[in-house]
Structure formats: structure tokens, C-alpha cells
Amino acid sequence: MISNETIVALSTPPGAGAIGVIRLSGKDAITITNSVFSGKDLLKQDSHTLHFGLIKDGDMVIDEVVVSLFVAPKSYTKENVVEISCHGSNYIIHQIISLLIRKGASAAKPGEFTLRAFLNGGLDLSQAEAVADLISSDSQAAHSVAMNQLRGGFSTELNLLREQLIHFASMIELELDFSEEDVEFANRDQLQDLINKITLVIHKLIRSFELGNVIKEGINTVIAGRPNAGKSTLLNALLNEDRAIVSEIAGTTRDTIEEVLNINGINFRLIDTAGIREATDTIEAIGVEKTMQKISQSAVLVYLFDVVNLSATEIKEDIVSLYKPGVSFVAVANKIDLSYNDRIKELNLPADINFISISAKENQGIEELKELIYNTAVGDKLSANHTMVTNIRHVEALQRTQTALSSVANGLANPVTSDFLAMDIKQALYYLGEITGAVTTDDLLENIFSKFCIGK
Ligand code: GDP
Asked: Does pLDDT of 455 surpass 90?
């Protein structure tokens, strides 16, 4: 799958900028650059050095540049790598890349630099995928999960599991070799223990996806309530200082731009807030189907009510109709700056409903509400050393591993011959290996790297 060609691409975003970085990787990266570079002889320079000079097409000077040299194997791709920092003009970049292609480089395919890094052993597959996540991370939590994966946290955990399974498999294989003699090298109880232990870890990893995924994508959040409850006022109070910067990067899956609130490094995506802002329907508005649909796909539902103008019975009715298992629910009494009677006491909400009183208009309790939203949705599930699965491909592979492992467990409980056990173990190893790339197919690689941008 890896070609001998030297590849070239722009590695910074296209468009005018102060500088653009053109990257080459491959056996001839330095030779090709040297043939158009006027300055020191790059072939005689050390790795990890910078060189100022001119890029010339014949006698014509295209640009003044700085060239960074990374001599194999001390580079991202483990091949010779050159990075040319030029002025960030589309024209210059295009001229330099065309020139390098005329001199023997070929245009890189999407993700080809990272693919080479993987194929040459610089990164494993889940680390390569983390590169893409890291580039697109737009919150502190998404960044730290991707960074942990890039630095090998996830891979280490999986490799540990793999080693244990390989040990298991080798014991079984040994039995197969001596099958005539009817010996059992692998103590069945110990095997059972091992499988249970591994299954538990895998189960934990699968469960972590629920949170891992929302960290990557942001947590869907809806603020619902009757007209005049104070939803717009609250929204403004919430977004006042913490309006997150959400970039419109082409190719990201988000097709609608929402308001995003960042609490403790997690992005809460306030979905379709425009629609909710405009909702001026009557009392039943929160019951209308469209709003309900939004609520059911949300991870957090903030129910806001006017503590002055709504009766305890009405509030309870709303809560009953909005509360859904699986959705984090926060009930918020608004307008406590006004005088109101004992409504909150009358409400007598069940202890497991998260409840807080605020004044959206007077900015009272807003920070506390943010903390409550965070604790309801994330709580203590996010700890620094906790490995988190954020990639759907990984979760699917883990689920298949789990299925294979339950066949092994069945095989141990209702004794089957060693060769059947060996087969199931191999299946489990195969699926686990797919995550880190210990097992790969061209289709799998194609599928992963084609989603990268050119130049990565
Ligand atoms: P929405 O229909 O739910 O979006 O409600 P709005 O945010 O438009 O608020 C309705 C009215 O209630 C406006 O006149 C707000 O100024 C007022 N309001 C909102 N929050 C508070 C509050 O905490 N205290 C008081 N006194 N008035 C509020």
C-alpha cells in the first residue's frame, strides 16, 4: 500500500495567510527540494535544522522561504521530510507545488502523511485517528481526550488486553499440539477469570463512549419552558461571557450552527435555540411535537418556569410531561427577584430531580446553574486518567470483541474442544487488533485515511 513516491502537499489551510507550509515526504524529499532551492546544499545539512533561501524555477525567483529538514527516520512519517515555509499566497503555493511535482514529487492523497506514519510504525491506528480529532477539537475536554489517545493512553490499555488474550490463546494452542494426549495446560478456572476480567474492561470502554462521544461532539442541551418563562433572558445570561467560538470548518459534520456554551471545558450545544426563542405559542407550546422531538434527542433538558405566575400544579404537570429517562433533567425556578409565595415548598419535588432557583434578569444563580448542568450531564465521569473511547469505529470493534469473548465464556462453561475455544479467542484478538492497527486491511485503511484532509 505504501508507494516509493515522494509526496507533496500544502499542510496549512488554503487561502491567503502570513505563511503557508508545504510538506514533502519520501526518499527524494531533500533531493527534490535541493534542486529548486538556492542557498546551502540541503543534502549536506543535519536533521532538524532550518535554512533560509530562495525557491527558483530556473532563473525566476518564486519566493524567499525557510526550509526545515527532518532526515529519516527522525520525522513524523519516518521518511525524509521537508517543510517549506513560504509566504501564504495561493499563487506562490501553487507555483512551488507545481514546480516540486515537475521535479519528481507527486501530489499527496488525503491523510497520506499520517498513513505513512502509521505504516512505518510511527503511530498506531488509533493514534493516527487521534491526529484528526486533535485538529478538529474545539473544547478543552475534546482536546485532552484526543491528546491522551495520541500519546498512546488508549493503545496501551488495548495492548495490555491483547497480551493477556494472546497468552490465553497460546495456552490453548499448546493443548492443540498435544491433543492426542488429552492434556489441559490451561487451567479452566483461571481462563474463566481472565475472560471475566477482560470483558469487564471492554465493557467499561464501551460505556465510556457515551460520554466520550459527547465530549467530542458537544452535549445537546435544550432550554424549554412556557412563553415568558424567561428562556431568552436566561440564554443571554448564560452566553454572556462564555459564548464558545465555533468555527465553520468545511467538512465537519455539523450542518447547523448553534449557540454553544462552554462549562468547565465541555461544550454544551444549545440546540435550535433560535426556534425556542421564537416560540410564542400558547401554554401547550412545550407539548408540541417538534419541540418534543428536539428534547428527546437532547442529552440535557433544562426546564425553566416562572415561579411567580405558574401554579405548583402547572409546574408539576410540565415536569411530568418533559421528564424522560436517559435525559439529564434540570428544573429551574426563574424570577426569584420578584416576591412570590411558598410555591417552591408546595412543589415538593422528588429528591432525585436537580433543582435550582435563579433570576435570569438579575443574573442571580447563573454560575450555580452552570455547575448544576455540568454535574448533571458529566458529574465525576470525567477523570484525568480515565481512558475514553470517542470513535464509533473503536466502539464497534470493542462490541465485536465482546461478542467473541462471550462465545469463549460459553465454550468454557459448556466445555467445547480446545480448537473451538482457540477460534473464538482468535476472533476476539482480531477485532481488538483492528483498533490499534495490529490487524489491518486495505479497505479499513482507505476508509480511515480518506476522511483526512490533504496535507495531514
Ligand atoms: P421567554 O418567552 O421564555 O423567552 O421569556 P423572555 O426571556 O422573553 O422573558 C419574558 C419576560 O420575563 C421579559 O419581560 C423578561 O424581562 C422577564 N424576565 C425574565 N427573567 C426574569 C427574571 O429573572 N426576573 C424578572 N423580574 N423578570 C424576568
From this structure: no
